[in-house]
Amino acid sequence: MAIPVQAVEVVRVGGEKPENKPDLVVAEEPLEIRVGHGPEDDRQQFSLSVTMRTPGNDKELCLGFLFTEGIINSFDEVISVKYCEDLGRTEGMENLMRVELQPFVEISNEQFKRNFYTTSSCGVCGKASIDSIKVSCNPLSGNSIKVTKEVLFGLPDQLRKSQEVFKHTGGLHASGLFDVQGKLIARNEDVGRHNALDKLVGALLQKDISVMHQSILVLSGRISFELVQKALRAGIQVIAAVGAPSSLAVDLAEEFGMTLIGFLKGDRFNIYTGQERVAL
Questions:
Q1: Structure confidence at residue 24 (pLDDT)
Q2: Helices marked H in 124-192 — which ranges?
């Protein structure tokens, strides 16, 4: 797959005099997600969301978004995910995707009142009200994991080294999933931090989402409320990030018993919630 970058000309300032130089920036384009649902004899379509994203892994992004927003609960509820093929239109079709849901999947009108419009920097900008932000999240279940501080120290560097597009542009967020021994299981990049996580969740949803229950999620930036919410939907017990969490992120993690680690850099980090999962 082609690397989603765009060539630009910049004026590089520094040294004796400014210089005109070629450079690469990460691509950012809108993606409209449409959902088809209903009984076989009465299918309906809704335009669910427009999100600004880095092109690539669009199927995974759609699946992850529907899952983390509570619209689907498993990959079995999906018939197909593909780019739209509107008759007589070719331009921009790579930025339109339609997700066909199984006839038995019930969609409430309330789910479409959120009027999703998602920028690359904020995943909740389009929510109609604060009440609609918090999707249904269940308490974390299964065996509690434990990770050593030494393993945590090495995770940001491993994630950074795995970022193919970041190497060219320096302009992408990443979400990586690691086991408790520090082995990278999967990772995704995007100009939007919430998109990177949705792509990661969507990829694993097609295989085995339960692997996330016993793994550590590592984020390349800060920890927002929505990222904690998305991780909870996926059953993740531990989030570690190089940036800081917000107050709502800490509150939500505390409420559901998640371990939240911020400012993970070098040999330092802060534990905000769930200290019992970190072996000190």
A1: 79
A2: 149-162, 164-169
